Amino acid sequence: MTQIAPPPREVSPDDLAARKRPAGPAVRTLVSPLALASAKGRAVYWTVFTGVVLAFVLAFLFPVYWMVTGAMKSPDELVQTPPTLFPKSFSLGAYTDSWELMDLPTHLWNTVVQASGAWILQLVFCTAAAYALSKLKPAFGKVILGGILATLMVPAQALVVPKYLTVADLPLIHTSLLNDPLGIWLPAVANAFNLYLLKRFFDQIPRDVLEAAEIDGAGKLRTLWSILLPMSRPVLGVVSIFALVAVWQDFLWPLMVFSDTDKQPISVALVQLSQNISLSVLIAAMVIASIPMVLMFLVFQRHIIAGISAGSTKG
Amino acid sequence: MKTAQVPQRSAAAPPPTTGQRPAGRGAPSPFRRKLSHQARAYGFLLGGLLCFALFSWYPAIRAVIIAFQKYTPGSAPEWVGTDNFTQVFQDPEFGAAWRNTLTFTLIALLIGFAVPFVMALVLNELRHARAFFRVVVYLPVMIPPVVSALLWKWFYDPGAGLANEVLSSLHLPTSNWSNGADTALVSLVIVATWANLGGTVLIYLAALQGIPGELYEAAELDGASIFQRIRHVTVPQTRFIILMLMLLQIIATMQVFTEPFVITGGGPENSTVTILYLIYKYAFLYNNFGGACALSVMLLVVLGLFSALYLRLTRTDD
């Protein structure tokens, strides 16, 4: 994104993350610091701490470890009892096999296309609509906003069948978006949650800032692009992450939209191909399918976690 | 919505057009200018509005219409009154699907509420490695649901699965897990909980950190034990968030699809057919879109009630 005006940042995810308390003398919680400071308290604390670390590692990291190393085991070793904790020999054969046998490049690419298209369209259309509703106040704007918010009451999954019929035969123009990335992209734009998030953020930006720009001769589009968007970087980041994750993780909708095998995203392809493929190849493909989102999480984890904890408690 | 402070320009009495730019706010705007302002506003709104109309509003109305039609793509729809509903009601899978969905939601709620709450309580007391806990607990959420489902399907496997291996090495009786009619549903709840609880834990954690420490101090001075402090301080202080998350969880878990589709295929003996799975079957296996929409409308009504309650409680403005 090219920035013309320097972005005046109001609340950045870094600020939110800064709320986390430092280790050591901390805000009072359930257990008093005094009780913790005693010898017995310290012993209990470190016992609990160790227990929790072990439990977390076992419950959340071990399955992932098991998956990553499982794909490195030979097919015989994979089914042997008792199972081995470490692969006897680390072989990446299953990974390369799954890459070719399951045609992972195609499916990964499909997923990337679907997710990034949905992300871009959502940013463009939702931002524009939120800007109009928040700052331009069109006639019937409140009715439209009400209609958009009403869709929050309608759980998305319950409507997949009529939505599928609409996508299969668009009204008036009678074209089908089945097996077309547009079938993912356009419905993704109708995301009331993200639109409302943007609108709420825009509402907080004083009108004077925008009016000053307009007096200086900036058009509506330029005001949006040069003034509002640079100020909205935190919320745009949150919306981007939500949009990307949602498409990447979705299963039911792409399962309906893409019947052509070579158009399917990785989630659908994995399930469709899981029947006739050897276990180690399937596990390798599962690992590969997880890498992009896990990587994104590890890179942006502070922002993602801050967004979850902050966004939801304010609600 | 607070809009009162925004000056509403009235449509009445447009002053004569001068072609000059008005000096600023409060200047009476000519009718023409107003019209072009509206046009521009709708220009910005158009893309989003079309998408909502096509993929949210229209399908919602259409679900209700098709529920009363015999509908096969390609041929003209035919009105059949409530036939779809009676047909769906008579389907033996219908009762099973609702029973399974409600049971799934109930168990998921019990586990999905208790486990994250306790986890958050404990994590909030720990002073070290906070970032580690947060990242690790959220990691499964970022693994694609399909992968989680396949992963657990492998764990549950009666031959090569880890689950029974662990049980037998601890000298515990093994289980049929997702392959047994009486254990399949619980097995699916375990998968869904593992995959989703990270978000819940983080939200509870944020809520717990918002509790003023003085409350605990005061309770302690009054001689309240740790459990009394939880009962009389922590729970009341987080009650609102708990209620919110419960409602959200009900709405989310009642739409469960990926786990039964990937792990059990609805079986064994229909023990894991859920409503959404049945909707999928009607549409894509039986090619009966009328029945699928009748089911969708029922699910919609039930979930809509919970959603309305949720929105009503979370409404912050006005």
TrEMBL record, chain A:
This is Carbohydrate ABC transporter permease. PANTHER family: ABC TRANSPORTER PERMEASE PROTEIN MG189-RELATED, ABC TRANSPORTER PERMEASE PROTEIN MG189-RELATED-RELATED. The keyword Transcription regulation does not apply. GO terms for cellular component: plasma membrane. Pfam families: BPD_transp_1. Residues 108-300 form the ABC transmembrane type-1 domain. One of its GO terms (biological process) is transmembrane transport. Its main location: membrane. It is found in: Cell membrane. Keywords: Cell membrane, Membrane, Transmembrane, Transmembrane helix, Transport.
Automatic annotation (TrEMBL), chain B:
It comes from Streptomyces liangshanensis. Its main location: membrane. It is found in: Cell membrane. Gene3D superfamilies: MetI-like. InterPro entries: ABC_transporter_permease, MetI-like, MetI-like_sf. Residues 98-310 form the ABC transmembrane type-1 domain. Residues 1-30 are annotated as: Disordered. Belongs to the binding-protein-dependent transport system permease family. The chain crosses the membrane at residues 41-61, 102-123, 135-155, 184-207, 240-258, 289-311. It is a multi-pass membrane protein. PROSITE patterns: ABC_TM1. One of its GO terms (cellular component) is plasma membrane. This is Sugar ABC transporter permease. Keywords: Cell membrane, Membrane, Transmembrane, Transmembrane helix, Transport. One of its GO terms (biological process) is transmembrane transport. The keyword Ligase does not apply. The keyword Disulfide bond does not apply. CDD domains: TM_PBP2. It holds the Pfam family BPD_transp_1.
